[in-house]
Amino acid sequence: MTALLAPDPTDTDRDRRLRAAAMRVLLANWTGSGTVPSRSLYPHQWSWDSAFIAIGLRHLSPRRAQRELESLLGAQWLDGRVPHIVFNPAVPSHAYFPGPGFWRSSTAGRRAGAPAGVQTSGIVQPPVHALAAWLVHRADPGESRRRGFLARVLPALEAWHRYLETHRDLGGQGLAAVVHPWEPGLDNSPCWDRPLLRVTPAPAGSFRRADLVHASAADRPTDLDYARYVGLAAAYRDRGYQDHGRGDHGHGDAGVSGARPSFAVEDPGFNALLIASEHALADIAEALGADASAPRRRARRLTDALVRRLWDRERGVFAARDLGDGALLPVTAVNGLLPLIVPGLPADVAGALGATLAGEHFRLGEVHMVPSYDLTGPQFDAGRYWRGPSWFNTAWLIHRGLRATGATEPADRLRAGILHDAGATGFAEYVDPYTGEGHGIRDFSWTAALTLDLLTDPEDTR
């Protein structure tokens, strides 16, 4: 394992060079209305990527950061969902799979209110957007007010949260559920292995993986996992992207009107980000002179449900709950640490999360950033996507949570590690937690954006 030799944070020359390099990445990946995660593997606009990118862009151009979010929200469906991909029609159809021809949003999603003038996917990603909008506003409140930024995005953000808190409360217990492993962002995490067993894979030869053209197969999900992702997405599409529809591929609750999808999971990271964004929504309402009591109440209810439903006291971590059998999934992963960002999390829970983060499962300060999966777990793979590697966006969220809970020393160590790894790997998508070797795509937009944020505003958690 390589030593974590982060340069002295007072090294302003290092900071200037890193800041300039991060800006170059964001400028190169800007399309005129939004930012692609990368020009190769991810040539469209992704939902939670754009939120993280806007958080960094606010330090480069607050107006461009506003446009980033406005562009994404312009593709919102009438039911309130913000799709996880907004497709650029200028990009060749073979450049990414599943592309617009697979999702067929304007036809398959018509009942759910998919826009007719733009093609999107039909699933969602974690709701970081209200938090991003609030941080973007605060970067230049005068410019934000002149453009009416908050007033224009507030209705879209409220509709987005309503969708998640109504359509997606599939367990009836007050938490939003995800219906595809891509939705919580931890695509091939071991968290999803068990619920995915209920999903019939798409037939071999029925699709072509464009991701393997740009990335090593050893770094990406396996063919079997990918076939299950495609089969599950196709089933959701074929029932018109309805969240209470028929069961998928003849499993479990098939044929029962109003039944849950075969993959339905309450994820702690997804719901933690929803809670943080409810608090941000309240801040936005207050800035506009509106009543902020409703989002505050929703945030409290969600927090109570999060702790009641997903806190595993014995393991000292939050766990996803499989709505297929009602059980907490016995997997320790980074999504279980993300509730550190929740304002008002009970102190004993926050303390236990800090201890878990420092313990043998994640070894904060001893390895690079925060592994995506338990270092001692049987499915750990240091190089394969979300089955072990450390990611910059989850590290940024945990840094924010640590600072908010007063754990400044581990937060400072984590910040130094994030900046070191970003610079050393050329803004890689993710890194090996033991060696720090970069994996996936380089010049990755959210890595550059969150690096820029930590260089500019490292202590801001409001």
From TrEMBL:
Coiled-coil intervals, chain numbering: none
Keywords: Glycosidase, Hydrolase
The Mannosylglycerate hydrolase MGH1-like glycoside hydrolase domain, residue ranges: 42-447
Alphabetized Pfam families for the sequence: MGH1-like_GH
Superkingdom of origin: Bacteria
Family statement: Belongs to the glycosyl hydrolase 63 family.
Identification of the protein by name: Mannosylglycerate hydrolase MGH1-like glycoside hydrolase domain-containing protein
Lineage: Bacteria, Bacillati, Actinomycetota, Actinomycetes, Kitasatosporales
